[in-house]
Specification:
Two copies of one chain form a homodimer.
Chain A lengths: L8 H19 L4 E2 L1 H8 L3 H9 L5 E2 L3 E3 H12 L5 E6 L3 H7 L9 E8 L8 E2 L2 E5 L3 H7 L4 E4 L3 H13 L4 E4 L12 E4 L2 H13 L2
Parallel strand pairs in A: 4-5, 4-8, 5-7, 8-9, 9-10
Antiparallel strand pairs in A: 1-3, 2-3, 6-7
Helix pairs in contact in A: 1-4, 2-3
The complex binds nicotinamide-adenine-dinucleotide (2 copies).
The structure holds a DNA duplex (30 and 30 nucleotides).
Chain lengths: ~210, ~210
DNA sequence: AAACGATTGTAAATAGATTCACAAACAGGG
DNA sequence: CCCTGTTTGTGAATCTATTTACAATCGTTT
């Protein structure tokens, strides 16, 4: 699928991998890397790395490789990571709370700015420094807080309804933790985080030996 | 990639999606479904569903569709989900604890049977009903407990070392939560659960409008 | 018992992704 | 300043996945 501007989606999905490996290399003191070396590190062919990058420009130097800091800068720019993204968490149960206090988002430019629940016993509580709002007020508050991304952590049986509300309120990117593959319009991008699904495809290879 | 027996990996990765949708349909009281209807539900073409299933056999009836309960049974069998899998959790910090007490694994046949850490302050503690063992004793205890799958929830900087140890101890399937793409031999399957990577590819589409 | 509408399973065609392979470009050394 | 050893960027070739298209089959209706 080439959902946008001619760059295949598989390519975009690999860029964060490159980014992470390069950031690691930079903090280990390396300056330059070849597609060959990066490929070994990530178990990807060098040609694939070069072709992926070629969709966006010419970032390397023949005979040398890529300047790590320069490539990092360009990848961050391409992925839109040279800005901070405001995130709303919907569903402040056990998982929602741990997402709100997960320290891995902020350093990557994702800031959880507000949290929502529908349970009157939870609304008004403070979780991880955030006051929990009523999900009924989502549209208004999300606009005020400039929310661009929603993380869904509600029970599976209400996930579709919650996502429908998010879509109606104009959200274009959703990270869904509920074990439910939800329907969204084509202009809304949804990613599922689901450890059970990952396990279920690995068991195929474990059992079919 | 057709890593095993001629069935493409993309196909195997879609089966758990089918499984989940069918289980949902069954519990809603449906008996039969056509590839057309299932495709609408999952946003997949009917032909893809039929072709995917055809790698494993002929499960449908012309003119009718698929018996949901029969197809569920076959999919569970194909994926190796008609047995219980024993899982070890490595790294009993905040995330490790929440994995141990996550109620979503058991009903799907994944049983967390033991937990490991390297911190002497954590080893010996009880978490979610499990005594935390020293990771140094992994090989011995994992064999005794018949562990088949390991879940890694340690800091990124030790993830590769931990995974090397797991591989040395004979694990063939790893679910990795550490934000690090780790290297494993070709016979060891690893899946990463990484919300940041998911977010980072969605921002491409948000910013590049 | 024949005719009908629905739906599968799959071979062939199309579309898409990856890899190959090499000319062009660069750094370093003689 | 030219030669050597690298490594990029990319068209063309290959490989893989998806979609098309339809004969075969099934239950139902007439
Ligand atoms: N993917 C993962 O890694 C993972 C891990 C754990 C849990 N989960 C899933 O995440 C979801 C939440 O799990 P949990 O353990 O936090 O459950 P939980 O019951 O502790 O929390 C769910 C929260 O959602 C709220 N909620 C319910 N309906 C709502 C609505 N319509 N609008 C807003 N909020 C609503 C509830 O009030 C509750 O606070 C479940 O679907 C669970 O299966 C996924
Ligand atoms: N993918 C996700 O959704 C997600 C969410 C949260 C955290 N994480 C990641 O999961 C990991 C753990 O996060 P956390 O918040 O639980 O951290 P934590 O520090 O609370 O826990 C890490 C645990 O690992 C243990 N450990 C360290 N070295 C070890 C070793 N060599 N062998 C065995 N155990 C060892 C530590 O003693 C500690 O108990 C981190 O890498 C974090 O980035 C991922």
């Amino acid at each position: 699928m080439t959902t946008h501007s001619g760059v295949p989606e598989v390519v975009v999905d690999r860029l964060p991998q490159y980014l992470r490996a390069l950031a690691q290399l930079e903090s280990s003191g390396f300056d330059v890397i070849s597609s060959q070396q990066l490929g070994e590190l990530l178990q990807v062919t060098p040609a694939q790395i070069r072709k992926d990058l070629s969709y966006f420009g010419r970032f390397g130097k023949q005979g040398r490789g890529y300047s790590i800091s320069h490539l990092l800068e360009r990848l961050r720019n391409i992925l839109g990571l040279d800005q901070t993204w405001n995130v709303a968490v919907v569903g402040v149960g056990r998982l929602g709370r741990s997402i709100i206090s997960y320290p891995g988002f902020e350093p990557e430019g994702f800031r959880v700015v507000c949290a929502f629940d529908s349970d009157p016993a939870v609304v008004g509580q403070v979780a991880g420094g955030l006051t929990v709002y009523n999900f009924a007020d989502y549209a208004e508050i999300a606009e005020r807080e400039h929310v661009q991304i929603a993380i869904v952590a509600v029970p599976a049986n209400v996930a579709q309804a919650v996502i429908d509300n998010l879509v109606a309120a104009g959200v274009k990117s959703i990270l869904n933790y509920a074990p439910k593959s939800a329907l969204t319009p084509p202009d809304v991008r949804i990613r599922n985080v689901d450890p059970v699904v990952s396990l279920q495809s690995m068991t195929y290879y474990l059992s079919a030996v």
